[in-house]
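Revision sheet: structure tokens.
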Amino acid sequence: MKMKATVHLKFPSEKQLGTVLHSLKPEAERPATTRSRTRLKKENRFLVLSIEATDTIALRASLNAYLRWINSILDVFDVLKTR
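Predicted:
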């Protein structure tokens, strides 16, 4: 059975959204494992993160990884704002 999750994340600007999308694109195109597949797309100021996995463990691992990466990128934006 395939497991699926879709997350819509709203960004404060198109520029930030574009940077996040560009940063995550290589990982989505060449995943480390065949147990999950990720699609990223832009809808207005939303990043749509869609993950399909072979099992719930792979789904959770992929979802956690992408959300952590996105959070890290947003943290970098915050640091850059203060400089």
